[in-house]
Amino acid sequence: MNYLNMNEKEVLPVVMELNTLLADYHLYYQKLRNFHWNILGKNFFDLHEKFEELYSDARIKIDEIAERILTLRYHPVSNYSEYLSMSNIDESTKVLKDTQMVSEILKDHSSLIKQMNKVVKSADEIDDEGTIDLIGAYIRELEKSSWMLDAWNKESSEKLNVSKQTS
């Protein structure tokens, strides 16, 4: 693995964490498709479009994660049975109300961010800047999407924290 200046054995923990993230993203992607297809009610148009935006983004990330694993000279996990056994994200088998769907997606975002942090920690231990850069951007994007979904799911009377400046 001379072109990356990394030892293959040292890279294995990063690859394992990336494969878990890949499994997480597959389950997340399918859940978003489920919600996109099954949304009902007054928020149909907003959420139908938002879920499509999120699953389109997830599809791109699935490919990028798999390609990062290949760049590290390992084969990515590619079977749904393995995804189901490895993933930190559970399937959603029932039809939910709109607010429940958004809460479920926020729960998944939390799981994805936790797994991304494991990837970054593992990559940092071997100075794998390529993986750190890729996943760092994902964390920033997912945090922003989470903030927006959380704001959508709140009552308009709710308030955020106020920071006080002291002189």
Q: What does the secondary structure layout of this molecule look like, with pairings?
A:
Elements (H helix, E strand, L loop, with lengths): L7 H31 L5 H28 L8 H7 L11 H28 L3 H25 L14
Concise synopsis of the structure shown:
This protein is mainly α. 71% of the residues lie in helices and 0% in strands.
Write up what this structure looks like:
The protein is mainly alpha-helical and 167 residues long. It has one domain: Ferritin, CATH 1.20.1260.10. Helix content is 71%, strand content 0%. The protein has 5 helices and no strands. Helix 1 crosses helix 3. The termini are far apart. The model has no long low-confidence stretch (mean pLDDT 95).
- The name of the CATH architecture is Up-down Bundle
Radius of gyration: 18 Å
Helix content: over 70%
Largest sheet: none
Low-confidence stretches: none
SS field, number of helical segments: 5
Average pLDDT value?
95
CATH superfamily: Ferritin, core subunit, four-helix bundle
Query: Could you name the CATH topology?
Result: Ferritin
The sequence of SSEs as H and E is HHHHH
Number of domains: 1
Provide the structure class.
mainly alpha
Say how many strands there are.
0
CATH classification class: Mainly Alpha
Distance between the termini: 55 Å
Question: What is the approximate shape?
Answer: globular
Beta-strand percentage?
A: under 5%
